[in-house]
Amino acid sequence: MDYAIIRLGGKQYRVREGEYLVVDRIKVDEGKTFTPDVLLGDSGVTVTAKVLAHERGPKIRIGKYKRRTGYRRHNGFRAATSRIEISLGGQERAASTPAPAAQAEAPTTATPTAAAESAAVESTAAESTPVESTPVESTAADDHVKGMPVGYEELTVAEIGEGSKGWNRPMLEAALDYEQAHAARKGAVSALESALKAKEESS
C-alpha cells in the first residue's frame, strides 16, 4: 500500500509520500514536524508531517440585504490554514527486512537437485526478462513527466481536483503537460488550470 489515511482536525485525508496538503490551522510552529493519527495503512507505517507555512485562505465576501429598509451589511472571511508536507516511514524497512532472511535460508535448505533446478529456472528467466521488461520500463519512462506529483498516474479526477489546491506551480505545470499529452481528461485539465490561475492571482 503506497498511501495512508490520517486524521487532522476532525477530517480525514488520503496521503502519499512527498505530498503537500493545505489543512486547517495547526498549533505547530513553522519548520517543525508532528505525527498525525494514522487510521489506515500498512502495519508499522508511521506518517510524519512537516509544517511548511501558515497561510490564509481566499477571501469570502458575505453580504446581507433587506429590501425597502436600507439595510445592507458586508463582511469578509479568510480561513486560517497550514501547508504541510507528508512523509511515510516504516514501509521500506518492512519490505526490505524479509529479503536477507530468505537469502540466508536458501543455502542451508537447498539440495544439489534443488540447486540445479533453481539455476535452470534463473537462466530461463534471465533469457526471457529483457524481452518483457524493457518495453515496460521505456514506456513508463516516456510517460512520466519530471516534477509531477508522486503517483499522479493513478489519481482520479476527483483526487486531482482536491490535491491540486496544495501543489506548487512546477508540480501543476508538469501535471498539466502530462494530462494534455496522455490522458486528456477534461475534468483534470480544468482543475489544474483553475489551480494555476489561483496561484497567479494569489502571487
Short characterization:
The chain is α+β, with helices and mostly antiparallel strands and 203 residues long. It has helices at 91-96, 98-109, 112-143, 157-163, 169-183, 186-202; strands at 3-8, 11-16, 20-24, 33-34, 37-40, 46-56, 60-66, 71-77, 80-89.
Features:
203 residues, alpha+beta, four-stranded antiparallel beta sheet, three-stranded antiparallel beta sheet, 6 helices, 29% strand, globular
Structural write-up:
Helix content is 44%, strand content 29%. It has helices at 91-96, 98-109, 112-143, 157-163, 169-183, 186-202, and strands spanning 3-8, 11-16, 20-24, 33-34, 37-40, 46-56, 60-66, 71-77, 80-89. A hairpin with a 2-residue loop joins strand 1 and strand 2. The longest helix is centred in the middle third of the chain and has 32 residues, at 112-143. The model is unreliable at 91-96, 106-111 and 128-141 (pLDDT under 50).
Please give the order of strands in the largest beta sheet. Answer: 3-9-6-4
Helix content: 40-55%
Number of helices: 6
Order of helices and strands: EEEEEEEEEHHHHHH
Secondary structure elements and their pairing?
Elements: E1 3-8, E2 11-16, E3 20-24, E4 33-34, E5 37-40, E6 46-56, E7 60-66, E8 71-77, E9 80-89, H1 91-96, H2 98-109, H3 112-143, H4 157-163, H5 169-183, H6 186-202
Antiparallel strand pairs: 1-2, 1-5, 3-9, 4-6, 6-9, 7-8
